[in-house]
Amino acid sequence: MEEQTSLEERFGLCPYATAQSLISGKWAVLILFYLEEGPIRFNELLRKMPKMTHATLSVQLKSLEEYGLVQRVQYESIPPKVEYSLTEIGKQFHPVIEAMATFGNQYIDHMKEGSK
Asked: In angstroms, rounded to a whole number, what is the distance separating the alpha carbons of residues 20 and 13?
């Protein structure tokens, strides 16, 4: 009988479990998508997100930053300015976002065909 392992135990060993862990936050993929446009300030990103609270975005960004997909740059200015952008490894997520968009559009079409 094969022993079951958790997602956390497979992180860094299994490519699927690792990728799933990196984007496990509800808004992670959408945040990465918006960051592809280039560096963006927190409040600007918050305005782009659908019905997201300040606290939720903060938690999601911190998680993506801890995983090394997003970098936070704080400028010493008055008022303080903080920008978020993709790291080099974060930019490598682009083909995944494109594939998800392609599949998402195909699935939307499939749902429309099913409702006819």
From this structure: 12
pTM to 2 decimal places: 0.84
What number is the average pLDDT over the span 54-59?
94
pLDDT tens for residues 73-91?
998 888 888 999 999 999 9
Assess contact for 64 and 32: CB atoms under 8 A: yes
CATH number, span 7-114: 1.10.10.10
Closest CA to 90 of 14, 16, 39: 39
Return the amino acid letter for 102: T
Please check the confidence at residue 70 and state whether its pLDDT lies above 50. yes
Task: For residue 84, give the nearest of 51, 52, 28, 44 by alpha carbon.
Answer: 44
What's the Cα-to-Cα distance from 91 to each of 9, 15, 18, rounded to whole Å?
26, 17, 16
Cα separation, 106 vs 63, in Å, equals: 30
What are the boundaries of each domain within the chain?
A: 7-114
